[in-house]
Amino acid sequence: MLNFDAIERERALVIQKLAATLPEAELKVLLARSIDQRSGAMSYGEYTRYFVRLCESARIDLRKTPALRRYVDYVLLCDGIDASALFAATERMEASAESLRSPTADQQALLDAAKQLRRLRKLALFEMTPHEWELYRTDRRGLKDLSDVLTRLGVPPESGDAFPSLWDAALFYREAEARSRTMVKTVAERLKAGPVVLVAGGFHAADLEAAFRSQGIPFASVSPRLSKIDSDGQTSYLSVFGREKTPLERLLKGEKLFINPTLVNVQDPELDLETRGALRLARGDREVAVGKVGDRPVFAGFRVTWKDREVARVPLPDGKTGKLYVAAAAGLKGLALLLIAPIVETRAFQQGGLALAAEHLARFGLSQPAAIAISVAGVGLAFAFAHFIVRWVVRAYQNGWRAGFTRAAVTEDLKTLAFDVGASALLSLPFLVLSPVNAFWVAAAAHAVINGIWWLLHSRVWFPKFWKPQSIFNRVEIVDTPPDAEPNGDREFLTERVAQAMSHEFDAQSSEEVVQMLNRVTKAEYTVEDFNGEVKVGWFADGEHKHVFRAEFERNQSQGPARPLQVIIAVKQEKEAGDIQPTEMEDLELLSGETPHTPVFGGRFEAPDGQGDPLEFYVEEFIDGPTARQLMQSGNFTDEDRALVVWALLRISRELEQMPKDAHGKNFILRNELGGRNAIMVDIGHRRTEIDRSLLRVISFYGHSSENPGSNRFVFETYVDVFRDRPVDGYEILQRNLIHIRQQQAADRRRGVK
């Protein structure tokens, strides 16, 4: 028998002698061999033989250390054992011994049942070696025989409920076999590109090696056990002889499948053997504890960090009572645990989970329905808060951190928050009639569906993709580029893509939906009968960050000649820094209908364009008329026009709580309307600037260049009029701007700029 205390003492003595005797170069070789042995590159027997030769070369007589000498002899003997042959011989000897005793039929059945129980125990504990799993897999009749034997022995029939958990364990091993097949297939594919390194558990080794051999794939198998050897001094070179499983122990134990799922630990040994935590076997008082992994408790697969525990009584389906330990049962931590537990536990606990939750939450003075409704509403709060954070981060990234807290953005997020909380409270009702696990998933799925419907209803245009009668707007033609436009091959190519995307999108909708979109954009009341279905699209202009096309919907001539109905199609530029941002479309959608100074927003779309990629575009009202810049260049930009443009810009800024940065003359069109002349900003862009410092920008764009100090008074008066009723009124904004202007003038004088 090996005396490991004596081996350890003698090992230390040999280490000291080697460290004092060997030169530095040989010590490095010893360290390298030690690393090879621990990584699997060198077998234990080969390493031991090297160690013996090293001691002989250092004139260290191992006979003076008899315990270590016996251990070395033992290792060399184990190295010569063929594990497969040993297992086969052992099984033959067991069968021979059983046959010699000539057991009766009942005795043989009992022996087979005992053998099967040992296998099942290893299966339930996920401790089977590949050889044992192969025996279990090929002897499926053994389970039926075991069930018959248990019945004859008088074991209660309800114990059969253990087998579903065993089926789960067996399924886990089958999945391991499937993983092995997948790994072999993946390696075979990736070998085409070069050598492959595959890291897998030892359980998979036999299957992988057999598959590689059958497919003629050359391989080298390495089995590391440690990722590091601590080298705190010379004596660490021989730490490989520290106490660990002996070679024979490792040989007999084999390679286990270690990726087993974490289960609740059951105190009852019978249940621990049969089900590893399944409450479905509870036939009386059962005590289920929160198992621990390291210093972190584990509850039904969920890791929690609370240490206090309390026993709660759980009504079970058979009318009896089980006892369950819950972590930190008092306070909000316990509440959180109770909200998790009904979702993931077994069926018996699912059916008793409500009573447990009600008993616990009664300490807060809440009834069961109210407590559960509040808990599910909390899920809605989490959804809504995450939604708010994502939206704010996106806005902040695109337009600066202030953009996330504009009045319009916060109002929209608060609406979403209120909807999420309300919907979740209503969806908590299934908890009162269903088991908690079913109700949770029903509520989660319904919550996602209702949020999707909310988004669709609040989009200006909803084009569902299910079957509808064919739309009449399925013929989209391309019109020639205006002769005064510069030749551009990319423009013609993009026009074809836009036409294909529009054709696909309009063809997928009903004619009524397309006409509704046109009515919204044109503020008219057309019907399908007013159109003949022909659509023409052509290039209109190139913006700084988008391409603009004009679409003409041909009208019927039954009532005499009729002009085509025109709308604007804005298409996102691809792979450029100035792409149409979601904020731009959201702001345009927000302003549509709130102010007459922007085009009416029709809807945003994404449709295949025939080139294999989706094309994003949106539809807006077509604004006809001269731009402010054109009027300036022709000398026809009047004082009234200046005032209209400034008024429109400030009204838009008031709604957005920020000023569009692209406020130059090309983006404003002056149009004559029934109520008089109006300025419309046709491109609000996605860049914003602070209103408090925008006065100088407005004056530089639209102010007078006259030296008359009062010539730009209309800008100041417009500021005061637009922002008079705001918490920070126009006078305060004006005062801050005047300070900024004086600072700019002083800086110009210092630089000698007049």
Low-confidence stretches: 158-164, 225-245, 248-361, 458-468, 574-579
Annotation, overall tally of beta strands: 16
Supply the number of structural domains.
5
- Note the beta-strand portion: 5-15%
Report the radius of gyration as a whole number of Å: 40 Å
Helix content: 40-55%
Shape: elongated
Mean pLDDT: 65
Distance, first to last CA: 103 Å
Give me the number of helical elements. Answer: 25
Give me the side-by-side strand order of the main sheet: 7-8-9-10-12-11
Which structural class do the helices and strands define? alpha+beta
- Could you give a short account of the major beta sheet? 6 strands, mixed
Question: How would you describe this structure to a colleague?
Answer:
The structure is a single chain. With 754 residues, this protein is an alpha+beta fold. The chain has 5 domains: 4-80 and 228-234 and 238-253, no CATH class; 269-365, no CATH class; 371-457; 475-621, no CATH class; 628-751. Helices cover 51% and strands 12% of the residues. It contains 25 helices and 16 strands. The strands form 5 sheets. It has a 6-stranded mixed sheet, sandwiched between helices. α6 crosses α8. The longest helix has 32 residues, at 368-399. The protein starts with a helix and ends with a helix. The model is unreliable at 158-164, 225-245, 248-361, 458-468 and 574-579 (pLDDT under 50).
